[in-house]
Write a structure and sequence with these properties.
32% helix, conserved putative lor/sdh protein from methanococcus maripaludis s2 fold, single chain, 417 residues, Helix Hairpins, alpha+beta, Elongation Factor Tu (Ef-tu), domain 3
Length: 417
């Protein structure tokens, strides 16, 4: 009995094993599917995470490519003061002197810086060809005069002989025709002599007016070509009259109503700080320059001692009070470009607008701006040289919060130990 029970248990175990085998593959497949879905979800999450990181990095890189700038606003100047504008000194008369004849420079008598009076000889040119042409022309004139004298005697003699029928009428007509032809030949030879004498006189170069020699471009032995045509010819001397001196000032349009003829104006120069040179307005262009919106004004200043030098820069103090609001900017807020002095203004769309400005008085660390910007403009401080028109910029946190400060130059940061 016990053996039969053991056999029945073994048979039941044997009959249960196939059922287990049939259920095993389905369970494993389900587990594989669950794991696959889990890994797929993790992979999609990782890819999306990496994509978002790449986008964030690209945005951050693009954001960092846009430069950050600090901005300030111009400081108003509301006090009454005199009108002070920059001016350029020019000679009252300035002329290049060219040769009027060809040859070689024999000698020069005046050098740069020499004071000359009208009619002083400056140089002498050796002209052997002109000399020989003049000698030939004079000989031709003598020959023409001799032929004219002979024709006159012949015509006179024939005039007497025709009365006695000693010569024919044809011979008399020939003599009169020859006489009529000889007269213009003498006149032509005489004109040629005078022309060459004029060229001969140009071998000596004289000063056309009183002044100083500012440039000498020739030396002894140089080949001299007449006139100023061609690349091989250039002026022999530059002569300038510096008494009085012309001072040209570009007066902003807003100040132009204050300018009138006879207005007193005094010059101040940095190198001559203790002296003042006064003159008056003698003429204006009577037209506003459309590119600079300024009125070209000329001030004549006496310069008997020659202290004022052509080409110098000076501050022109006009004898007129300027009232109303004016603006000032620090020097480190300006851009110096070939087109002029610029201020970089940040617009509402955070793009740069380069505005050309007109500078008035120099206060040292700041400058008076008489034209070009407004009080509400956000002006870039310490602008980089590579800043361009319509360039997109970012404002520093301080500037973005609206605390742009004044036009005073920012204080230097303390140095680190």
């Amino acid at each position: 009995m016990s053996q039969n029970r053991v056999e029945l248990q073994d048979e039941s175990k044997v009959t249960e094993q196939p059922g287990i085998a049939r259920r095993g593959p389905g369970a494993l497949l389900r587990w594989f599917l669950i794991l696959f879905v889990i890994f797929l979800i993790l992979g999609i999450y990782a890819v999306s995470q990496r994509t978002s990181e790449h986008k964030a990095l690209a945005q951050q890189t693009e954001q960092m490519a846009i430069p950050y700038v600090s901005v300030i606003r111009a400081t108003p100047i509301n006090s009454d003061s005199e009108m002070v504008l920059p001016g350029t000194l020019k000679p009252y008369v300035e002329s290049p002197l060219y040769a009027r004849t060809n040859g070689y420079l024999k000698k020069w008598y005046k050098d740069i810086g020499s004071h000359v009076a009208k009619g002083d000889i400056l140089a002498e040119i050796d002209t052997p060809e002109i000399d020989q042409q003049l000698a030939q022309a004079r000989a031709d004139l003598v020959t023409a005069q001799a032929n004219l004298s002979l024709s006159t005697l012949t015509a006179t003699r024939y005039q007497d002989l025709i009365k006695t029928d000693s010569v024919s009428r044809q011979d008399l007509d020939n003599a009169n025709g020859d006489l009529a032809a000889r007269r213009p030949m003498v006149q032509s030879a005489d004109a040629n002599v005078k022309r060459l004498e004029e060229l001969e006189s140009f071998k000596r170069v004289y000063a056309p007016f009183t002044g100083i020699i500012t440039q000498r471009n020739v030396d002894t032995g140089n080949l001299i070509n007449a006139g100023n045509g061609g690349t091989a010819t250039k002026e022999m001397f530059d002569l300038a009259q510096i008494d009085p001196m012309r001072v040209y000032v570009a007066v902003p349009q807003s100040y132009s109503p204050s300018i009138h003829l006879g207005l007193k104006a005094c010059l101040s120069l940095t190198e001559l700080a203790q002296r003042s040179f006064c003159g008056q307005v003698v003429r204006t262009a009577n037209s506003i320059d459309s590119s600079t919106r300024t009125l070209l004004t000329e001030v004549d200043v006496p310069n008997p001692s020659g202290t004022l030098l052509p080409g110098s820069y000076a501050e022109v103090h006009f004898d007129v009070k300027v009232s109303g609001q004016r603006l000032s900017l620090p020097i480190n807020a300006l851009l110096f470009r070939p087109d002029g002095t610029m201020a970089a203004v940040v617009g509402p769309d955070n793009r740069i607008n380069l505005k050309k400005i007109t500078i008035g008085k120099d206060y040292g660390s700041t400058l008076e701006i008489v034209q070009g910007i407004d009080l509400t403009d956000r002006i870039v401080i310490n602008p980089p040289d590579a800043l361009e028109q319509n360039q997109l910029v970012n404002l520093t946190p301080q500037a973005a919060s609206g605390d742009t400060g004044s036009a005073s130059p920012p204080a230097a940061a303390p140095s680190k130990p």
